[in-house]
Amino acid sequence: MDLLADLTTPQREAVMHVDGPMLVLAGAGSGKTRVITRRVAYLLKQGIAADNILALTFTNKAAGEMRERIEALTPGARVWVGTFHGFCARLLRTHGSLVGLDKAFTIYDQSDRLKTVREVLDALGIEDPPITPEKIESAISKAKNDLASPKSLAFRARDDKDRLVAKVYAAYEERLKGASAVDFDDLLVHVVSILKNHKDVRASLDARFRYVLVDEYQDTNMAQYAIVRALSVDHPNLCVTGDPDQSIYGWRGANLSNILEFEKDYNFVKVVKLEHNYRSTKNILSVADHLIQFNTNRKPKALITENSRGEPVDLTVYGRESDEAEGVAGRIQSLVRDGSYNYSDVAVFCRITALTRTFEQAFRSARIPYQIIGGVSFYERQEVKDVVSYLNLINNPKDDLAFTRVVNVPPRGLGKTSFEHLISAARERGETLLETARKAKSVPGLKDKAIRAFLDFTQLYDELAALRDDSVEKVILQLMEKSGYRQHLKDEPGDKGEDRLANLEELITAAREFDAEHAGATIQEFLSDITLASPIDRWDQQTGAVTLMTLHAAKGLEFPVVFIVALEAGILPHSRAFDNPSEMEEERRLLFVGITRAKRELFLSRCRIRSFRGQQQATAQSQFLTELPREFMVYEDRSGVVTSERGWSPSSSSSSGYASRRPEPRPNPTPSPAAFRLTTAAQLGGGSFPTTTPTSDLDAFRPGASVLHPEYGLGRIVSVDGAGPNRKGKIAFTLSGEKTFVLAKSPLKVVGKAGGRPTR
Ligand SMILES: Nc1ncnc2c1ncn2[C@@H]1O[C@H](COP(=O)(O)OP(=O)(O)OP(=O)(O)O)[C@@H](O)[C@H]1O
Ligand SMILES: [Mg+2]
């Protein structure tokens, strides 16, 4: 195949650039990933050894796809393609001893980290920490990504909370060291410190990975930056691609300046700009372009496409969240029924995973096949975690966390007290829990039954550890038998045990596939593979199912049809970002990423009423909706509520600049009788909100009554004060807090009586 035939001139220029640093700065869908893949193949064609090339991507999924494409372009080439974390895990297997790691180190995932933080708090005797363990955990993670040590954190601490984080951080590090474990961030941090402190190692890796390529460079953090930098000193043949408008991992420490300052970091940088988008229709791109221009902190960049104009972007407002989910399901069905698309052409994106549940329900009842990316990942399921913990302990006997997880699984009659005795003896003696368990007889306070249980467990452990060098599949099968875990699940009442066994079957299949692909591979490699797996890795676009995923997970992907749902203030933008302009810009970029995934059709939606913590609440629309250009869109309100909400009014849709709606077979646009209905302004006598309320209507404003405001949404009257035209009301809005109005001059409408619910 001609590697260059279907590339544009600037793309070709980037692919054919061999030596020296290069920055491919380009918009969404302009072929950045295509350039990276082709460039790897091109380098190989130039006679550069596969060994000398390192390609780093953001997910294993992306890495896998790239590997496949490289394999198709240049069969047989085994290039290092992977994520930063995967790359670092592999490096540490060879060089880990330089940072004091055992060969058989364990990688802690998110839940292991949190558990460790909790244990540390416990051990430090902190019962009621002023910040949650989750927040401490993420502060530690942030510190690591910024390459800050516990000491420097303590030094910088400004209040008690900071000091607590620093203290927990230090103890957390001790614990990981004792267990010969690393967390995800350590994978990067350890490699950074090896590259920094061992000049010979750095130089040899720099020479080995002579050609480094990084996709999605805009989302690299400090540690990742340092790694790439250190590998490109003697051989600065570094090619990075990125789009600052798609930087969406700031909350995880990604540093936009890595890409913005690339030209300052390296000499003689070749900069290639790709300005054409090959993915989306003109309408979709115009909407994306308008939106992103609201970000002030950006360099202007045009998005151009030769693609057709396509269908207008659709914006629909629904009543309740279930109406939205059903509406989306209905749309998907008509798109598929038309014969225009398959289910697998369609993706539904939302800001947070919690929102997927409603859509799952709607898809199930509409019999739409779907797959969910995110939520509880497969490897976090209890039974999978149990078996994996056994494997971790077999691989690394110092892994106290794994010991804790499995010593009483299945139940061996060990109580909390016995376990506490074991822990304090182990701490006192400076031993691992497994070592101390072997000497259970000498542990003060243990009853005979507990001693027996610990000794039985260590015997089981030795039997299992003896199998260490067998295939991973065999080890798993044996451990399930010998530990009695399989029987334990079989004995579980109901279907639960069977479901769990089915999950374990899936784990066994994964192990079998791993054994087949990696002859002679160790348990450790399998463990590192599955621990670093992200939910998206298990996703398969070819399964004939609709994909349901978060906006973050959608990065880099593309779909013919995209739905972005729940475009409401507090969801997207996330309420966390409200007070922070730079976070608001990141939220806008997140929507931009979502929009630019769509190739042919884009549907945006929101609902007016959403249940939140069990309560029905009125929503306010996402401010981003007001930033979208109407001439490329069609709008429909299916909620049955008429408001003058910032001009998104259905009655004026044709005259307010919207494109005209295409004729489309659609379900009855009026809400079903079961659908939630607010008392509409129309029912109250007007086609839309009046700007003032007639004095004669003021009686309706009583404390406790529900009111609707065109901008603030639904609220409840807290108190009223005064009389006649000066009468004031204090309203508590569900989403905007308390506000006071001179009632006669306000555009408020009473939608529910005092003491009643705002429903009818
Ligand atoms: N020269 C080209 N001719 C035709 N199609 C192209 C060309 N370049 C890229 N494409 C197609 O355009 C789409 C987008 O390309 P690609 O995914 O590489 O863009 P990207 O810049 O990496 O996008 P993102 O910013 O979303 O990661 C893909 O379907 C790709 O196959
Ligand atoms: Mg890409």
TrEMBL record:
GO BP: recombinational repair
Protein name per Swiss-Prot or TrEMBL: DNA 3'-5' helicase
Region annotation Disordered: where it falls in the sequence: 643-674
One Gene Ontology term, aspect cellular component:
DNA helicase complex
Q: Where is the UvrD-like helicase C-terminal domain?
A: 282-556
Q: Does the keyword Ligase apply?
A: no
What PANTHER family has UniProt attached to this entry? ATP-DEPENDENT DNA HELICASE SRS2, UVRD / RECB / PCRA DNA HELICASE FAMILY MEMBER
Q: Taxonomic lineage per UniProt?
A: Bacteria, Pseudomonadati, Planctomycetota, Planctomycetia, Isosphaerales
> What terms describe the molecular function in GO for this protein?
3'-5' DNA helicase activity; ATP binding; ATP hydrolysis activity; DNA binding
UniProt-annotated binding residues for ATP: 26-33
Give the range the annotation lists for the signal sequence.
Answer: none
Organism of origin is Paludisphaera borealis
Q: Which InterPro entries match?
A: DExx_box_DNA_helicase_dom_sf, DNA_helicase_UvrD-like_C, DNA_helicase_UvrD/REP, P-loop_NTPase, UvrD-like_ATP-bd
Q: Which residues form the UvrD-like helicase ATP-binding domain?
A: 5-281
Sections of the chain in a coiled coil = none
Q: Which reaction does it catalyse?
A: ATP + H2O = ADP + phosphate + H(+); Couples ATP hydrolysis with the unwinding of duplex DNA by translocating in the 3'-5' direction
Enzyme Commission numbers on file: 5.6.2.4
What CDD domains does this protein's entry cite?
DEXQc_UvrD, SF1_C_UvrD
Q: Which of UniProt's keywords are assigned here?
A: ATP-binding, DNA-binding, Helicase, Hydrolase, Isomerase, Nucleotide-binding
**The keyword Nucleotide-binding is assigned to this record:** yes
Return the similarity comment.
Belongs to the helicase family. UvrD subfamily.
